[in-house]
Design goal:
Elements lengths: L1 H34 L5 H5 L10 H6 L2 H7 L3 H4 L14 E6 L2 E9 L2 E5 L3 H9 L3 E7 L4 E6 L9 E5 L1 H5 L5 H16 L10 E3 L6 E3 L5 E2 L4 E10 L2 E7 L7 E2 L1 E4 L6 H13 L2 E13 L4 E12 L9 E7 L13 H6 L4
Parallel strand pairs: 1-5, 10-15
Antiparallel strand pairs: 1-2, 2-3, 2-6, 4-5, 7-8, 8-9, 10-11, 10-13, 11-12, 11-16, 14-15
The chain binds zinc ion.
């Protein structure tokens, strides 16, 4: 009788422990399979095992053909637990190399348009094992890939500077900027700055976690000012030492800790040209993922001083009339918009 009473009381507990034990065994078994490279993607595809993320090295070792069946790495699809594969709709596939993106140029009635690769081209890059890194953000409905070397491109496609999408105001330009920024961040955020441990992708959000100390790293931005200084209708433009020597553009620089945007503008203009400015006004901002800048476009007026360039950075700085401009940056950048008076 005592045994029966105890059993009856313990039954829920026993059931719970049995279920929990089964779950742990099941997880361990699954992880062993994942680690061994026998990860059955079709199971993930059904969402059955969507809870689990294989470890980073399994992500690298997954049979390429199976990844190709998927379209993109299932590991990164598991970044968000709430997104099982069948819920992950991918609208855009971005393939990057350096600062370029793979596109097919189309001459439409409304002007130049850029067609992005489809899932098949994306899969082929995986098939041919030319991808250095690939990832997806299901919540943003895109998948992206970085190629290690310039590769032969599909017929009709070519490598185009990403800024061309900005210039053409492509509907996916903003998302492509995000994807490029995340791709650069992934490339440059591989080890923990605290303990040196390798990082793995976070399961739940766009972040990386140290496998040793657990510190989390999130995508970061570097704010930069870019300013057009005017004096009696003339524009202050400079040739930079490290860039195309024939190109004249606005003054620009990274913000420093403790600075306001206005203080940064004053400091950068004075450091690079010896000119003091006033009436600083914000104009427009732009994501500039080369690799991680947020460009803050400003206007400023000349206050005092004579041009004296910073030798280390500036080749030459001159005042130009708006109707006698030198070679300036192409469309797609804040510099072009500021110089041409679009903003
Ligand atoms: Zn660490």
């Amino acid at each position: 009788m005592l045994f029966v009473r105890c059993s009856a009381r313990s039954l829920p507990l026993l059931c719970f422990l049995t279920a929990e034990f089964s779950r742990i065994v099941y997880r361990c078994f699954f992880r062993v399979l994942s680690t061994a490279g026998f990860y059955e993607l079709s199971e993930v595809k059904t969402g059955k095992f969507g809870f689990f993320c294989p470890p980073r090295f399994a992500h690298q070792n997954i049979a390429q053909q199976k990844v190709a069946d998927f379209g993109f790495c299932p590991y990164n699809l598991c970044m968000s637990m709430t997104h099982y594969f069948e819920d992950a709709i991918t609208d855009f596939f971005f393939i990057f190399h350096g600062n370029c993106i793979l596109v097919k140029k189309l001459n439409n009635a409304g002007g130049l348009a850029h067609e992005l690769p489809d899932a098949n081209i994306y899969k082929k890059c995986v098939d041919y094992q030319v991808a250095k890194d690939w990832f997806a953000e299901p919540q943003n409905r895109y998948a992206a890939m970085t190629l290690a070397e310039p590769q032969p491109v599909p017929q009709g496609f070519e490598w185009e500077p990403l800024r061309s999408l900005f210039a053409a105001e492509h509907p996916a330009a903003s998302l492509a900027a995000r994807a490029a920024g995340i791709a650069n961040w992934r490339q440059n955020t591989r080890f923990c700055s605290g303990c040196g441990g390798p990082l793995s992708d976070d399961k739940y959000e766009t972040a990386r976690v140290c496998t040793l100390c657990g510190h989390e790293f999130f995508p970061s931005l570097s704010p930069c000012i870019i300013v057009l200084v005017k004096k009696n209708g003339k524009l202050l433009l400079a040739r930079h030492k490290q860039r195309n020597t024939n190109l004249y553009t606005c003054l620009a620089g990274y913000m420093e800790p403790g600075e306001t945007i206005e203080q940064c503008v004053e400091r950068e203009v004075f450091e690079e040209t010896g000119i003091k400015v006033k009436n600083i006004r914000y104009a427009k901002s732009q994501s500039w993922p080369f690799p991680d800048q947020l460009m803050i476009g400003c206007h400023a007026e000349y206050e005092s001083g004579e041009i004296k360039v910073q030798q280390e950075e500036i080749q030459e700085a001159l005042w130009f009339s708006a109707d006698e401009l030198p070679q300036i940056p192409p469309p797609g950048s804040l510099a072009w918009e500021l110089i041409t008076g679009k903003i």
